[in-house]
Amino acid sequence: MHPESEQFLEFKSLYSLADHLNCDLDQLQNELNVIKPMIKDENLKSIIELYEKLRPYKEAFPTVMSMITGALTIPVSSTTCERSFNYPEAKKEPANTGNYRRGRKEKIKGVVLHGTAGPNAVQWFKNPKAKVSAHYVVEKDGRVIQMVSEDDTAWHAGVVSPNSKYAKGPNPNSWLIGIEFSRDRNNANKMPEVQIKAGLKLVKDMKRRYGKQFGVYTHDQFETTRTCPGPKFPVKRFKDAIKG
Ligand SMILES: [Zn+2]
């Protein structure tokens, strides 16, 4: 429904959203036939501008108006729109869509800390061959990159060792957010303070958004044979950061 798109207000492109919202499709078509000439020369820049433009005539366009309010308020995971990204300070670089699953089967209960065991995690998650991903990558210089919406299931902690206390529960990916911290091949380097601080800020923001039940986990709690996030990772600072 973006105004700059060629299909803006084309019936076909609105069909799935209209259907989702149980709109009357014939009525929708009639309304669009009236609206299109009205806004032809308006050069509207956003759906909100369209909403403002139509508001004085809202009685005439009940279907379109309810679709706009629907599009602005229903969770992105249940529409065909672009995914929502959760942390405004992160640079957005979407992972390949084949490297994660849309939606979640469980409520989010925490975050898993990982070390990348080498460079170029961002490029790898964009590669369709990877079949792995994390929601965030925190680079050594403190840059934070969001690659998967928290509303979706990234693939970073899905292998659970039989001796893990989580072996019998639901797949960790379904209830956890994953953060990869760029580290050396052995996940053993001393981490730059700027990288740690960026990670702490991100995790505190998650805690604020997910509340009491939100906890900090490490990859080796699930896959116990891993050295991840690795030695010299300040796990305690992350756990302390979300206390209280
Ligand atoms: Zn890991």
UniProtKB/TrEMBL annotation:
The entry's keywords: Cell wall biogenesis/degradation, Hydrolase
BP terms from Gene Ontology: cell wall organization; peptidoglycan catabolic process; peptidoglycan turnover
Molecular functions per Gene Ontology: N-acetylmuramoyl-L-alanine amidase activity; protein dimerization activity
Keyword Ligase recorded: no
Domain N-acetylmuramoyl-L-alanine amidase: residue ranges: 97-230
Enzymatic reactions: Hydrolyzes the link between N-acetylmuramoyl residues and L-amino acid residues in certain cell-wall glycopeptides
EC numbers on record: 3.5.1.28
SUPFAM superfamilies (UniProt xref): N-acetylmuramoyl-L-alanine amidase-like
Enzyme class: hydrolase
Protein name as catalogued: N-acetylmuramoyl-L-alanine amidase
Species for this entry: Rotaria sordida
